[in-house]
Amino acid sequence: MNATRTLATARRVLRQLGHDPRTIALLLLVPVLLLVLLYYVFDSDRDSFDFIGSSLLGIFPMVTMFLVTSIATLRERTSGTLERLLTMPLGKGDLIAGYALAFGVFAALQAGLATAVALWFLDLDIAGSPWLLLFVALLNALLGTALGLFVSAFAASEFQAVQFMPAMIFPQLLLCGLFAPRDSMQPVLEYASDVLPMSYSVDGMTQVLHHSEVTGDFWRDVVVVSGVALGVLALGAATLRRRTA
């Protein structure tokens, strides 16, 4: 990998995104609007809002970054841009890292905006530091970016890329502990939840919600989510194709 080529790729992707205001609105505003909606849904039950709202601060960025990244990367391949780029002295690792860096910038903006609105406008009550909440939200957004880059290699159209969402995201959403405690699930479902990264994302948010100090479980959650994101990025580089068949 070459830092100069990686940064050049990131700048190109950022310029393209800068000319697409609808995508920017999807990335930055939709999670905030959903949190505001959730606030009014649980207007009379603050404890439920605190738990579900803090969890969704991690889930929303993961989902939106997954969608945008998978579709944008697939569009690069179907338009022939990816094939032209890879005829240059640009490795797959440089390309994947450049995309991850570019979308990581928007992930940071998205996580920062959603966290700020939740804490200072919606009065989300947490015991831990707001910076830890932001940190976990950013990790989840980066994980969504990594998953989007990975699945884009297996989709032949944008419609197929969207179809990967039920397969990749919905099972994690159901088993992550948001709807029911993981230890109350059937054993096979509990074991499945133990290997899904969103479970650790939600648990990391829960640690910040309930504990004023950084716990060992929090660091475990951070290591798992970070490790999965890096591993999926490596798989994305290995499976990247020049063009769609």
UniProtKB/TrEMBL annotation:
<keyword id="KW-1003">Cell membrane</keyword>
<dbReference type="InterPro" id="IPR000412">
    <property type="entry name" value="ABC_2_transport"/>
</dbReference>
<feature type="transmembrane region" description="Helical">
    <location>
        <begin position="95"/>
        <end position="121"/>
    </location>
</feature>
<keyword id="KW-0812">Transmembrane</keyword>
<protein>
    <recommendedName>
        <fullName>Transport permease protein</fullName>
    </recommendedName>
</protein>
<keyword id="KW-0813">Transport</keyword>
<feature type="transmembrane region" description="Helical">
    <location>
        <begin position="161"/>
        <end position="180"/>
    </location>
</feature>
<dbReference type="Pfam" id="PF01061">
    <property type="entry name" value="ABC2_membrane"/>
</dbReference>
<dbReference type="InterPro" id="IPR047817">
    <property type="entry name" value="ABC2_TM_bact-type"/>
</dbReference>
<dbReference type="InterPro" id="IPR013525">
    <property type="entry name" value="ABC2_TM"/>
</dbReference>
<feature type="domain" description="ABC transmembrane type-2">
    <location>
        <begin position="18"/>
        <end position="243"/>
    </location>
</feature>
<keyword id="KW-0046">Antibiotic resistance</keyword>
<feature type="transmembrane region" description="Helical">
    <location>
        <begin position="54"/>
        <end position="74"/>
    </location>
</feature>
<dbReference type="InterPro" id="IPR051449">
    <property type="entry name" value="ABC-2_transporter_component"/>
</dbReference>
<feature type="transmembrane region" description="Helical">
    <location>
        <begin position="222"/>
        <end position="240"/>
    </location>
</feature>
<keyword id="KW-1133">Transmembrane helix</keyword>
<comment type="similarity">
    <text>Belongs to the ABC-2 integral membrane protein family.</text>
</comment>
<keyword id="KW-0472">Membrane</keyword>
<feature type="transmembrane region" description="Helical">
    <location>
        <begin position="21"/>
        <end position="42"/>
    </location>
</feature>
<feature type="transmembrane region" description="Helical">
    <location>
        <begin position="133"/>
        <end position="154"/>
    </location>
</feature>
